[in-house]
Amino acid sequence: MLTLPFIVVGVVSFFLGAAFLAIFARQAQGDPLSMPVAAFVGTITTAWALSLGFTAADVWSVNARASQVASEERSSMIRLAGMAKPEALASAELMNGLQAYKDAVISVEWQNANLSPEPAVEQALQDIRLALIALSRSGLPDPIIAQMVQDFDELQDARNSRLAVGVGSVNQLKWYLVLFLTLLSAIVIGAVHADRPHAGRKAILIFAVTASVSLWILALHANPYVGVARVILGDARI
What we know:
mainly alpha
């Protein structure tokens, strides 16, 4: 389904450019000097290329951040689980809280593209917090408690960062700019080929294919938690 909108973008760009090419060709027959020179096409297409490049840079940086956050969250869970195992502190309450957290995160928040916090995850965090408080009252050495609290804080920070990445990825304004400049570039290509309509249609077709495929590839990575290229939490064995 994700492919169809970009096929539509390519088709609309081509026919829009071809339609304006026909209009410009008729005007050029009456007054050739009324059409822009060929160098003018670089003004708009450069703006299009820059906006596409900035969008691509934003997409890649968000995906890199999502991968980093997922690794940090997984690492924090593994460290806490290692402390809670029978051969360590043997804390069933902490292990149950971590398992509940992992299950709720994977089955609820990640399935919702990490767009909003879920009560089940908040409850699991509270269970972990209570388990840590109980351990602190059991007479464990302070350095062990301090390390576990630090791991727990890092777990919460990683989750907050994950949710922030999910919410930030839905901003569509940058895509509106790229789409506008895509359509405008097709029109400009038609304008500078007004004296050569056949060559102009070929140029518009090549541009439409290039633009639609480029946007489609970027869209596959637009939300780091959705699609075939999505970031996953990975195997956090608890």
